[in-house]
Every structure is written in structure tokens, then in C-alpha cells.
Sequence to fold (428 residues):
Amino acid sequence: MCSFNLIQFLLVTFVLSLCLASNSNLLNVTDRRLDDTVDPVIIVPGIFGSQLDGKWNKTTSPHYYCYKTVPDWTTLWLCFQSMVPKVIDCWVDNMLLNFTENSFRNRDGVETKVNDFGGTGGVENIDKNGYYPYMKALVDGIAAIPGYEKGVNLRAAPYDFRYGANSPIGKLFLKDLQNLIEDTYVKNKGRKINIIAHSMGNLYMLEFFKTVSSSWKSKFIKRYIAVSGVFGGSVKSIRALVSGEIESIPRVLVDANAVRAFQRSFQSIYWLLPRKELWGADEPLVFTPDKNYTVNDYADLLDDAGFPDGREILKTLDGSIDFKDPGVDVYCIHGSDIPTAAQFRWKPKYFPDYQPDQIDGPGDGTVNQRSLELCTKFKRLKDHKVYPGIKFGEHMQILLNPDVIQYIKDVVSETAIQDQSNNTELVF
Fold:
């Protein structure tokens, strides 16, 4: 009879092999010109919304059954087989970022890239097998409009969501995004581009609009459609850094502490912390038996949670957390009236390694209402749609809402009511 350890080794090896085998060929973006009667669309996804591929040649691994060398591109995010107990340690080791000399980079020996930049395959589903749809309903809805074709005038800009926009990787993405917009403009006979961004993709868009001139925006951008924008941060990010957040990951059997290490290594999680402009110094966000913490206390919070590197990581956000008007026409869409984490309370002996009690406030289930509504401050806001309730406006569910998809289709095809300046409409 085989020993338990041998059986476990064989099982883990089999699961890892499945993950490697699930890698698919990348789609090629066509260079063909198409119908010039519709305005092109480029989609910018949110955090965890871009498929990531990786390959590695490492000298160490967390366990004997973890592959040290994988020479061919394979799926890193999202591979469900990597989420099983024991195997998840191998996956976390490859997803982690190293923070050295005030900069972020992959683990030694690990290379990563996004899947299908310029096509839509890297954002339609979070996994390549299509088990966890993301933008697919929206992409298919727009593709059904006569004149649109995926990869030609319906495109996407996936990015490595582990980084913030002011990192070297983030800045490279912003340049790639500009090139994609200009390329799409040329290939579609000078038609201006509709930008659709979701969640953290809206933070990337605000940073992008800072990098281009007003004349550039006038030439290339038709409008900016902001869906569930985390413009002022999200209280949920605090839990991710302190105890680990698994609600943003598909519901599988995952120990929150098992993913806390890689979440703490992501610059983007810090970028999502609630902003001082929206949360006051007299408004505690974290309660512990020994101390309470506000937006002014993030460095102390991370120190007390046993992660002193967080203090230096917070400094890397300088210049990327100020709120600036995008300078383009904006259509803002988000949910409301859904219980959303507003504060966390850790019981005695629970801080920081166990999950806290959650005190809810208004929002879309992920992003707080005051953060979502920052879009109403934009000078060229053309329309503001609010979808109350979990069924219609939840942070991810909103992308499946037929009314939202139809509204976006109407806007990009210009059949929606025009120039609804600063008009807030509750949609039930």
C-alpha cells in the first residue's frame, strides 16, 4: 500500500499538471480594417480582472512538490486547480511581488505577462476555461451591435493588476494603452474611442488622463464610461492587508492567511486604501482592543499587524492618489444600497491573524458609496446612473445586469438621451 505522503505527492503533481495543461494559445489581434460607422470601444478591467500568464526558473520553492521550472507560458491567474490546499502555496510563491529598493518586481526567476492585450479574450473570463465570466456579457452585448468586431473596434487593455499606475510596470501599461488607443483610432478611420473602465480600472484611467494633453483627448477620446469606480478607495482593502481578503477571489476553499502574503506584496492593494479626502481623521476605520486607526494611521496599523515593510510601501503611492478631473465626457454607472464594509472590529487575540467583525455602511458591496459618487465631481459628467440592490448594482453583478449592458450599448451607439448633464437617475 502506498503511504499517505506518496499519495499526496501524486495528487498534487496531477493537479499542477492540469493547471499547466490548461494553458491556451494567445489570440492574435487582427490588423483588418472594418466598418467605420461605429465608434470603437476599449475596455479597461478592474483588479483581478486580467488573465495573467507566467513561466519560471527558480532555485527554491516552498514545497518539494512545487515546480521550480516551467519553461512555457502557463496560466497564473486564474487557475482554479492552484487554489486547492497545499498547491496554493506553490501558486502564492509565483504570484508574490518582491519589494526592494522602493520598487516592486516579480520573484526571482519568474516572468509574467497579460493575456490577449488588444483583444477581449483576456477580460471576458477571469479563467481561460470560461468557468468564471467577467466582462463576457458586456463584450458579447457590444459585439452584437452591427459593425462591431472583437479585436478590431471592440478591444481591451488588460494589465498586471498587482502594480499601481506609478510603478515602472504601471507606467509601461499607460504607454501601451495610449498606443492601443491611437492604433485603434487609425485602424478605424479616425473614429474616436469609447473607454469603458470597471473598478480599479477607473483609477488607472484617471492616471492615464493626467499623462496626455487636452488636445490629445479631444482628438482620440469620444467618452469615458466609468462603471463601479473605486475613485476614493475601499475600506475592504484594509482587511486584505491586515488579515487577508478572499471575497474578491472566486469562492473556493482558501484560507485567508494563505493569500495575505501575496496581497500584502501587491502595490495595488495599498492604492485602494480609503482616501483622506473622503474619510476624516476623527472617523475610525479599524477597532482593536489596544488601539483604533483612521486614514492617518495606515503605517502604524501595518506595523502593529506585523508588517513594517508596509510603511515604506505606502510611500510609493506619492503622486498617484490625488483626484483630478479626467477632462473628457463622462458617463458614470454604479450600484447603491448594498451593505458594504465601512469599519472593522478585531476581537481580543484576533488581530491580525483572524478575520474581524465587519460593520457595514452604504455602497455596492465592495466600494463605499462616498467613493463611487466621486464621479459626480467631474466637470463634464453627462449622465449618472445608479442601480440599487444586490441583484442590479452589486460590484460584479452590475456587469451582468441586462439594463446596464443595454444602457452602455445605447451610449456607445449614441441612441441614448444626449447631454443629460449632471443628471442622477435611480434605476430600479
Q: What stands out?
A: Confidence is low (pLDDT under 50) at residues 1-33. The first strand starts at residue 41 and ends at 44. The radius of gyration is 22 Å.
